[in-house]
Fold this protein.
Amino acid sequence: MALAYKSTRGKGNETVSASYAILQGLAEDGGLYVPTEFPKLDVPMESLKDMTYQEVAYEVMKLFLTDFTEEELKNCIVRAYDSKFDTEVIAPLVYADDAYYLELFHGKTIAFKDMALSILPYLLTTAARKNQVTNEIVILTATSGDTGKAALTGFADVEGTRIIVFYPKDGVSPVQEKQMVTQKGDNTFVVGIRGNFDDAQTGVKRMFGDEKLKADLNAAGFQFSSANSINIGRLVPQVVYYVYAYAHLAAEGRISIGEPINVTVPTGNFGNILAAFYAKQIGVPIDRLICASNRNQVLYDFFETGVYDRNRDFYVTSSPSMDILISSNLERLIYFIAGSDSEKTRDLMAALSSDGRYEITDEMRARLADFWGGYADEAATLGRIKDLYEKTGYVIDTHTAVASAVYQNYRAETGDDKPAVIASTASPFKFSRSVMTAIKGDVSGCEEFELVDQLTAISGVAEPAAVTEIRTAPVRHTTVCDKEDMEKTVRGWLGVN
């Protein structure tokens, strides 16, 4: 049976196909596309545990992308999850200090965004053919550090597409910035903005909703789509690795089939933990979803109080991909706990836009029982990197450290010792300065790549190809603009007056 999608803010019963939702990225009313119901896994875990990552991906994605043929979907999967990943299993699990770290950083850009952005270009170009699109597709994306490079890598020189990435000029790590500004591809454009990620994301959303810009683009033969996690084509592939992780644990005899596990995710824009929530909805025995925030603890406060309030100080931390005060994907969860009430969702999002805050009802809060929120400040984050390394020799990045520290707090507070999976979202090599500071202390006198060499030595892990590539790569993108000039910058690059 075909699974339809609707907007979280949509009026009436208007629905679209999966391919149309992927193509649009953001719904015309500003809402996010969600499935009208959750499908259920139709292959038993007993079978899934013997499958490869690619085979599990097909069994999960076919449930959500029902208007893709088997041939189309398998072609997308085979082209995405190939030798560009440096481990055969794609997403290995490493046991350290009473938790299983799900390493999601073995792709081309050494961050978890590769897991979805390796396949999104193929899903998107297939969706364009299925919907008889003749315009050139312009991927318009804001990044807090990792999405940008993963999207650029995925879409570079893909026929019929262009990609524009906005990032906060002073809000990403040196390695993250170097990865983006050295990006090859005649269809790529990278812009630093004078502002933070929320400014970039707000500007991108504004352009998506600008009817005059849309008309001008169409007249010039272009149309926007998104590579951010607001695109359902990003979210669905992320569900896969939680299903695979559970199956993998069962295959290794670490858990028995049906035994519940907890999942901890370092969270900024809420897409990655939402994917774990979706995995639970389709039948994976996940008990508690532990939402880990850094010092920008807007999500922690939301789970504690039922109030989402972005009216607060913004902090630049050592986990920059989580330096976010507007968690866009939370809207999908709000819609769910509101009982699929699009009017209620629309009102809450309007309040967020106008007042910077909203408060959910007691009934909605009761439907958040699956979630537990925690946060780790800078001292706790760096302390956890050092502690885990000294205990086990295992080195994690700053974002994973936030999740690990929060999980430690969760166990201490609740006594819940169910098997736990921690989403390890980036290679420590992507944040070598912060990681080496945590382990060694003051490293201010060291150059960036000197720290990479030190990290290689202490971790026993070879330097990733993604880091090697940027050591000598020339800078190709130098554009910087004010946040108010984002649309002008886009029009200029595309030649649209």
